[in-house]
Amino acid sequence: MRLKLAGILTALLLFAVPALALAQGFAVSPAEVTIENLAPGEKAEFRLTVHNKEEVARTFVFTVFQPAAEERREGREQFPSTHWINFSPSQLQVPPGSSAEVTVTVSIPREEKWADKDWEVWLGVSSPSSHLLNVQLYVRLLVSTSSVVSRQPSTALLLAVITAAVLLGCGAYYLFRSKRRTRP
Amino acid sequence: MALHKRNLNVVTVLLLLLHVLIFTPSLPVSAQTTGVITITMTGGYEISLAVSPDHWEPGGAGIVHPDTTYETDAQQFTLTVGGNCPVHTYIAGANATLIREGRIDPSYKWSLSQDGGNGLLTYALWFTLSDAAGYTLLTETPIEFCSTTLGPGDSKQFGVKLLTPQPDFIRDGTGYFAVGNANIQARIILSAVAAA
């Protein structure tokens, strides 16, 4: 795999790009979020604040990271799916010396197997750059689900209600008609 | 006629009963109640990390040769913990990418070594804390940067070492990279999470 470039015989490679000699400073709060009693089928929403401490505007991106078992809090299991966590917006442009917020939504599918669980997952915040050294900050997210499933109406229940209404209507109609016709 | 209508009413009642029997088993799960969801943002804790400087020009001008080792002083870089939250810190390396006109060119890259050895298109990175005895190999899997928890205001000095890949080709006894005068971007990721 050789690129056909002018200067192909050049033995040197530029390794680092010129960069500002500034620290990559930014902060995220809160550092830890605990969600308790979240029922499968429900969602929880909270906001993270990103503070850009540098003198230039930065774009921040958000990721979900599954920490190793030894990095998690005691009694916490791995979060089942990173797809259950959504960031809005997915990336954030923050002016120098300013702060901005991202909304995080955690949605648990309505299945009984996700009831009564204690999970941990980390939310990563970083500002990708062309510099050699990059910083990524993680917010610990601790999620505990309730022992019961959400009471939101299921499809079967809705179907049952509709069918019942139709049948009751029919019954009332026939009763009304039969009473009218049996009158002298 | 009256008998026919009475039959219809009976059928209606039977259908209603049948309907209840069919759907009743699915109702208890749907009817369970849930409590109040509690979201706790831990205090006013803010997590923050800074590293300075954030770049390095190996060989003095940022120009490297194949199969060559470059290293900084062990005090070259300083990681500083900000915010108001004690943290665990981690460090990881990444593959090096070719940058053309400000964009990643996927046709050429250096993979990060898993064992400290270099090869064709494979390079290696290490780091050392200023108070450590030797270098620690960096892979894409994050490892502990500092074995102890760092508090707000704490800082750690560290250095890095780079071993460039074997030459892409050799001519007249001299090794060359296939891309000349190009920018290769290597990355080291320093990360932090709130300590227990």
Number of strands of chain A: 11
What's the β-strand tally of chain B? 14
Which assembly state applies to the chains in this document? heterodimer
Q: What overall geometry of chain A do the principal axes of the alpha carbons give?
A: elongated
Radius of gyration of chain A from CA coordinates? 28 Å
Main pleated sheet of chain A: 6 strands, mixed
Mean of the pLDDT scores of chain B?
84
Summarize the amount of helix of chain B as a percent range: 10-25%
Low-confidence stretches of chain A: 1-11, 16-22
Number of helical regions of chain A:
1
- Main sheet attributes: strand count, strand direction, barrel closure of chain B: 10 strands, mixed
Taking the alpha carbons of the first and last residues of chain A, their distance comes to 101 Å
From N to C, what is the helix and strand string of chain B?
Answer: HHEEHEEEEEEEEEEEE
| Proportion of helical residues of chain A | 10-25%
Identify the biggest protein-protein contact and residues per side: A-B, 84 and 89 residues
Write the H/E string of chain A, N to C. EEEEEEEEEEEH
Number of helices of chain B: 3
Number of domains of chain B: 1
